[in-house]
Amino acid sequence: xxxxxxxxxxxxxxxxxxxxxxxxxxxxxxxxxxxxxxxxxxxxxxxxxxxxxxxxxxxxxxxxxxxxxxxxxxxxxxxxxxxxxxxxxxxxxxxxxxxxxxxxxxxxxxxxxxxxxxxxxxxxxxxxxxxxxxxxxxxxxxxxxxxxxxxxxxxxxxxxxxxxxxxxxxxxxxxxxxxxxxxx
Length: 184
What we know:
Low-confidence stretches: 2-21, 165-184
CATH superfamily: Nucleic acid-binding proteins
Helix content: 10-25%
Strand order of the largest sheet: 1-2-3-5-4
Strand content: 35-45%
């Protein structure tokens, strides 16, 4: 009897955790994302990967509306096994820009006005773009947003969770990633 009860409890825990996974990669994009493509691959030669979908994440440095859409500058931070950019700023390999051409993924760039705001995106590699960093212009990779997950620091649980004011998946409890750590 005890053995059956433990098996049922284990099965319920497994099924419960599977149902609560976050949609960092929506089903419509899962088969199209190149899980082996890393920021370090595209950093210097993104034109070699133009059109490919990849995962990238980091800390939002700025977000603004432009004539071409919403432009978000991100300090790249490696993704954890849960696909959350939880590392330190010093782990960054550089910057990149994400572009929301239609404004349908980022309806309001003001949500990024928090210094702890982080994002994970499924992005299409577009190539390079020029940004201003202090007094220096620098070319960085540019990605078109196909899907974005916005993360916020949870002071109670002392970790990142979906930003509740920005399309957070309901019932999110996280999931153990199968993409490996760190996900560069």
